[in-house]
Design brief:
Helix content is about 30%, strand content about 35%. It has about 525 residues and is of the alpha+beta class. Strands 17-18-19-20-21-22 form a 6-stranded antiparallel β-barrel. Strand 11 and strand 12 form a beta hairpin.
Amino acid sequence: MFAGVFAENFLVQAAVRGEPGLRECALALVDGAPPLTKVVAVSEAAQRIGVAIGMPKATAAQFVGVEIRARSLALEKSAHAALLDLGWSISPRIEDTSADTMVVDVAGLGSIFGDEKAIAGELLERGRACGLRLNVTVAGNIGTALVAARGIAGACVIARGEEAARLSGLPVGVLELSLEMAETLERWGVRTCGALTELPVLELSERLGQDGVRLHALARGEAARAMAVAEPGHTFEEEMELDDAVEELEPLSFLLGRLLDQLCARLTARALAASVIRMRFELEPAFEKAIESKKEIVRAKNLPGVFERELQLPVPIRDAKMLLKLARLRLQANPPGAPTVKIRINAEAARTRVTQNGLFLPSFPDAQQLELTIARIANVVGETNVGVAELMDTHRADAFQMKKFSATTEERDKDSRLPAMEKRKQTAISCRVFRPALAATVELEEGRPVRICFSGLRGEVAVAAGPWKTSGEWWRENAWQQEEWDLELEFRAGRGQKEQGLYRVYYDWKCNGWFVRGVYD
């Protein structure tokens, strides 16, 4: 059994999916270069007030209450991708028939969704979740499923042997006739599929050729063919072209939220989540100041700029509100430098995470909420000042960089499974570094430190190890040349007691001074 899925009035549905506020409005879509701009699609409400396809834009604009929008290929592309995604959410075998039509192989799905009527209803429900109003027909062959889906609203199941009877009352337009073929059948008075099946096949072949024979078989519900299976993709994209450039963050966030809602609906249909979100903003072209030369105004136009941002997510996420908060924080810290005229959001899909907490493991914060908290902190202190300190591959003692913090459950579980003995082997002494290093005064005897003063403390050197001489990057302004010592110091406390500590001390030949780098824990 095959399910034919058809999105009626697809151009209007694509526009309404991108702008849900137009759902109940009288909408007319126009296309073409002025002054030849004409109406190419209308909603049912627009039809009722008299707006028709082919009408000039100026004429359509005279109707009271009509909303006119330019046809958007980007919205149609996104709507078509959403149609395919809901098909893959039901079955791994679908056919990408056309922009508004697909075929779904529903064989073997009864144990999951129920009978054919339940499968058709499930496709309708998932279509509504993706912002599409569909017609779904389940039949024994692909031709019948497609023809009936174009002519029968809602969900329908056609049993084997009933194809001709169920298709007989449908107009011949559901057979997707060419313009010439439609005019010929109209002149003959053939307006329904039943009337077409009554014509003799031999005479029809003589007058219309093989196309006539094919249409006759389609009208009888006997046009069987193989299915061209489409390969599913794992990259999801939503795009929106703006009529007016948007400069403020608040309206831009509203548009981002709409795109993310659509994106997450598609991810949910495929049981996937986003691991990386890429945002691309095409900016409005900038104009140089007008220059008056020989009583002529000369304007130099720059090419539109592109502003891109990327969200590396700690775990796969498909929560649209969470993604919008992260996007807002990223744009607040570094907004686009000019008004935005086009938005494109791209998501790399991954499997949703499965959380299995152990009975004897400590609880950890939710990774999504932790990522949002880190993003808020980065918005205040800067992205380069938040994360995990990582040593750089250099001999400079204080060289480090910040890398992105990620506390995934896999890393925690791996650490928790380590035996106690293995954990003890990994334990090592650590040095708590002072930033900046503390200036010190050091007394030497025979070239070795014996006493040191820093931060109001005076200590006697009990044990000294060193020196270790290091230098590097002589070709740069921040070159270094140092002698480092490890000193065990004794400080006198009250009542004759002594306190000890192990410190790293170095002499900087560039500054000609002693400094305390840190203390060992």
